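Annual report, structural modelling task.

Input specification for the iron/sulfur cluster complex:
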Amino acid sequence: MKNNSTDISRRTFLQKLGIGAGSALTAMALDPLHAFAQETNKTTLLGDDNAQNKMTYRVQHGSGEKISLLGFGMMRLPDEQEEVNRLIDYAIAHGVNYFDTSPMYKRGINETQTGIALSRYPRDKYYVATKMSNYSQDLWKLDEARKMYENSFKTLQVDYIDYYLLHGVGGSGMEDFTPRFLDNGLLDFLLKEREAGRIRHLGFSYHGNVSVFDFLLDHQDEYHWDFAQIQMNYLDWRHASLSKGRRHDADAEYLYNKLDKTGVQAVVMEPLRGGALAKMSDELSQRLTALRPNDSLASWAFRWVGSHPNILTALSGMNQMSHLEENVRTFSPLDPCTEAENKILEDIADVMAGFPIIPCTTCRYCMPCPYGVDIPGNFTYYNEAVEQKLLPLPDPKASDYKRRTKKFAKGLRKSLPDASTWANRCADCEECLKKCPQQIRIPNQMTRIADILKKR
Ligand code: SF4
Ligand code: SF4
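The model returned the following structure:
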């Protein structure tokens, strides 16, 4: 039943989750944060008495700031600034106050767009997150890293950063983390910046090798992480480390529970697992629509994530107004999943984990490929073919073997009309390998796709 109030008591909330009140460390607040009024040249924003703002909030440990449970992932912003402003205006008017960007997104343009849109608002009305990114090994030098850090203040037009992250830690284990953050004094520098108040909350975004995650949290007494960003959704909860074709070695359940025990709040990325949870097979999706006919598949995934009390905010990369509107509805207020609903999602995840999908989130960090391969395009189509049950291919002797291989090639042509972007153009140069936060073995996966094409 839809909950009409943000005033869900902690006990009720935890009961719905099937979690004992004593098991969670997180302080929660589900009160609405009122929107505010501001006149700009282009738009009049909604005022304090805005009845539409029923957003659900969580409280940041220590500072007591109220953070909207729906966070705005800026990575996929449209190119036009007017359109960006329009999205941000709608988000802020409806209570969203956490905005996540990085100097890496669109080579800095994304931070600039974010700065332009947010700086039209009073500084205490939004929380901006950006990152110490890693798009070049030059950034392992303290001077270069500091330049990027200082530049973020300029592009975002701020004199403090609310949430600052060590971006993408863990990909290659301590082997990369040690020279990138420890040996060069960069982490010490950032800790001092937090002491000086230029960074309000310091955290890291984790991708990959759990030894780094464990190292960072096991040194919590020294580093005092304020938050950590992890990939979490109902598929990765128990199946991240089993996903085919990647090297993740811990499930989201492990990551979340360790953060909870350590008292570090989690920011969630990829709540839809790169869109995979928003477009599953009819067979699976009907199990959900039968229960809540008006709810989208995406809203189930967001409700599942938001139901965990140690989540500070769940990021959604929203580049279309319709997505933003729908997500705002889901979180205004959040209706947590019941135990029975959690069980259904768990069953669906078990079925999906049996599919040989490639866990690409279409982030495009791996692009461009020097040989012209559209890496996310090939993976997106491959996953669609799995959902349509074209893949995995049956035994070559099976009667529909040829039909399915031909249909696969036809579908790829439709999806990627330019054949020079197909997987069979991969030259195995491995340039993309280190760039993928999902640790996908990209060239191996390209070979698998190319092999199917050969069989047509
Ligand atoms: S390994 Fe293949 S897909 Fe990756 S960059 Fe090289 S050619 Fe492109
Ligand atoms: S292959 Fe990896 S880096 Fe490339 S788009 Fe997919 S998830 Fe992102």
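Residues 142-156 form the longest helix (15 residues).
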